[in-house]
From TrEMBL:
<comment type="similarity">
    <text>Belongs to the peptidase C1 family.</text>
</comment>
<protein>
    <recommendedName>
        <fullName>Cysteine protease</fullName>
    </recommendedName>
</protein>
<dbReference type="GO" id="GO:0008234">
    <property type="term" value="F:cysteine-type peptidase activity"/>
</dbReference>
<feature type="domain" description="Peptidase C1A papain C-terminal">
    <location>
        <begin position="144"/>
        <end position="369"/>
    </location>
</feature>
<dbReference type="InterPro" id="IPR025661">
    <property type="entry name" value="Pept_asp_AS"/>
</dbReference>
<dbReference type="InterPro" id="IPR013128">
    <property type="entry name" value="Peptidase_C1A"/>
</dbReference>
<keyword id="KW-0732">Signal</keyword>
<dbReference type="InterPro" id="IPR038765">
    <property type="entry name" value="Papain-like_cys_pep_sf"/>
</dbReference>
<dbReference type="InterPro" id="IPR025660">
    <property type="entry name" value="Pept_his_AS"/>
</dbReference>
<feature type="domain" description="Cathepsin propeptide inhibitor">
    <location>
        <begin position="61"/>
        <end position="117"/>
    </location>
</feature>
<dbReference type="GO" id="GO:0006508">
    <property type="term" value="P:proteolysis"/>
</dbReference>
<keyword id="KW-0788">Thiol protease</keyword>
<keyword id="KW-0645">Protease</keyword>
<keyword id="KW-0378">Hydrolase</keyword>
<keyword id="KW-0865">Zymogen</keyword>
<keyword id="KW-1015">Disulfide bond</keyword>
<dbReference type="Pfam" id="PF00112">
    <property type="entry name" value="Peptidase_C1"/>
</dbReference>
C-alpha cells in the first residue's frame, strides 16, 4: 500500500511539473536569435498541440536558414532538410514537456537527424572498466562555497566550437588542462585540440576498440595518457583547430603545459564539487539526449539515461538558484562549458540540475591533479 501511495505521489508531482511548464512556456516554440540567451518567440501556441507547431513550419525554416546561414545543394536536399526540421520541431516540444525547467526549441542543429547530430557533434567513446588514472581519495565537503565558478577567477578560456567533427573529448581534455595550468601558473593559455585530433591514437588497454580517433571520437582518459607520453600540449595559436582529421604536426619545442597525473573522481556529486573547487574544472562525460534542442535554463529531465554517455564536456562551476518544475523548487545545478560555439545554449554553456546523477553526469569524471609548467 505504501508503495502504491508513493507511486501516486510521484505521478502527481510529474503532472504538476507539466502544468508549470504550460504556464511558463505556452508562448510556443522558441529560437535563439542572438548569441546566447536572446530568445525570440516565433508563435503563440501550446506545445501540447503538435499540429499547431507545424502550421508555420515553413516560415520558421526560412528564419532558421537566415539565422544560421544554411544553404543546401538543391531542391531535393532542401526538401529533405525541411522534413527533418519539422521532425525536430516535434522533438523540441517533446523535450519541453519532459524537461520543463529548461527551454527547448529551434537551434542550429534543427536540420540534422539524431544520427547525424550524434556522429558530428558528440564523439565520446564507451570506456571499459579499466581505469588509467588513480582513484581520487575522498575530500572534505563541509565548507564548500554555496556557489562557485572558475570563470570568475579567469581559469576558463572562451567557448570554442568543434564544428562537425566528433572531437568533444579533445575539448573536454584541453579545458581541464587549461584550468590546471592556470592554477599552477596564474596564466590562462588556450591549448591545442587539433594536436589531440591529429596525433593522439592511444587505446584503452582493456578495449582495443576504444581508441582516440580524431573526429571519430575518443576518451578524455586516453587523451591524458597521450599528453603524458608526448610530453605535453602546444598552444592553440601554434597548432590551430581545423575541424577535421589531419597529419600530426606536433612540435616538442613548442610545448606549454604538461600533465603529470590525473585522478578519477569518486562517483558522488558532493565529491565532484570538492574536486572542482580544489583542483579546477572537471572533464566529464554526459548523456547529451536533451542538448540538441536546448536553449537555456536549468535542464532536469524527467527521464534521461545515466548509462548512455556519449558527449565530453567541462564542468566549470555550480549554482543554487535554478528553478526546476519537476523538482518543484529551486535546486542546485552544474555550470557546464560545451564545445558547440557561443551561439548554442546560454552563450555556449549548459546548466544541469545537480545532486541526482542526472544524465550520467557523475559516472565518468576526471580531474587533472598536477601540471608541470614548461616555460613558454
Amino acid at each position: 500500500m505504501a508503495r502504491v501511495q508513493y507511486l501516486l505521489c510521484v505521478l502527481a508531482l510529474v503532472a504538476v511539473g507539466f502544468v508549470v511548464a504550460v504556464s511558463a512556456f505556452d508562448d510556443g516554440i522558441e529560437m535563439v536569435v542572438g548569441d546566447g540567451m536572446e530568445d525570440g518567440v516565433l508563435n503563440e501556441e501550446s506545445f501540447f498541440d503538435p499540429a499547431k507547431a507545424l502550421l508555420q513550419a515553413e516560415s520558421r525554416f526560412e528564419l532558421f536558414k537566415r539565422k544560421f546561414g544554411k544553404v543546401y545543394s538543391g531542391p531535393e536536399e532542401h526538401g529533405r532538410r525541411f522534413g527533418i526540421f519539422k521532425d525536430n520541431l516535434l522533438r523540441a516540444l517533446e523535450h519541453q514537456a519532459l524537461d520543463p525547467g529548461a527551454k527547448h526549441g529551434i537551434t542550429k542543429f534543427s536540420d540534422l537527424t539524431e544520427e547525424e547530430f550524434e556522429a558530428q557533434y558528440l564523439g565520446m567513446k564507451k570506456p571499459s572498466s579499466h581505469k588509467f588514472g588513480v582513484q581520487g581519495p575522498p575530500l572534505p565537503t563541509d565548507n564548500l562555497p554555496e556557489a562557485f565558478d572558475w570563470r570568475d577567477a579567469g581559469a576558463v578560456t572562451e567557448v570554442k566550437d568543434q564544428g562537425g567533427c566528433g572531437s568533444c573529448w579533445a575539448f573536454s581534455t584541453t579545458g581541464a588542462v587549461e584550468g590546471a595550468h592556470f592554477l599552477s601558473t596564474g596564466k590562462l593559455v588556450s591549448l591545442s585540440e587539433q594536436q589531440l585530433v591529429d596525433c593522439d591514437h592511444v587505446c584503452d588497454p582493456v578495449d582495443p576498440m576504444s581508441c582516440d580517433a580524431g573526429c571519430n571520437g575518443g576518451l578524455m582518459t586516453n587523451a591524458y595518457e597521450y599528453i603524458k607520453e608526448a610530453g605535453g600540449l602546444m598552444k592553440e595559436a601554434d597548432y590551430g583547430y581545423t575541424g577535421q582529421d589531419g597529419t600530426c604536426k606536433f612540435n616538442s619545442n613548442k610545448l606549454v603545459a604538461k600533465v603529470k597525473n590525473f585522478t578519477e573522481v569518486p562517483v558522488d556529486e558532493a565529491q565532484m564539487g570538492a574536486y572542482l573547487v580544489n583542483y579546477g574544472p572537471l572533464a566529464v562525460g554526459i548523456n547529451a539526449a536533451f542538448m540538441q534542442t536546448y536553449i537555456g535554463g536549468v535542464s532536469c529531465p524527467i527521464i534521461c539515461s545515466k548509462r548512455n554517455i556519449d558527449h565530453g564536456v567541462l564542468i566549470v562551476g555550480y549554482g543554487v538558484h535554478g528553478f526546476t518544475p519537476v523538482r518543484l523548487s529551486y535546486k542546485p545545478y552544474w555550470i557546464i562549458k560545451n564545445s558547440w560555439g557561443a551561439n548554442w545554449g546560454e552563450h555556449g554553456y549548459y546548466k544541469l540540475c545537480r545532486g541526482y546523477g542526472e544524465c550520467g553526469i557523475s559516472s565518468m569524471v576526471s580531474s587533472v591533479a598536477a601540471v608541470a609548467v614548461i616555460d613558454s
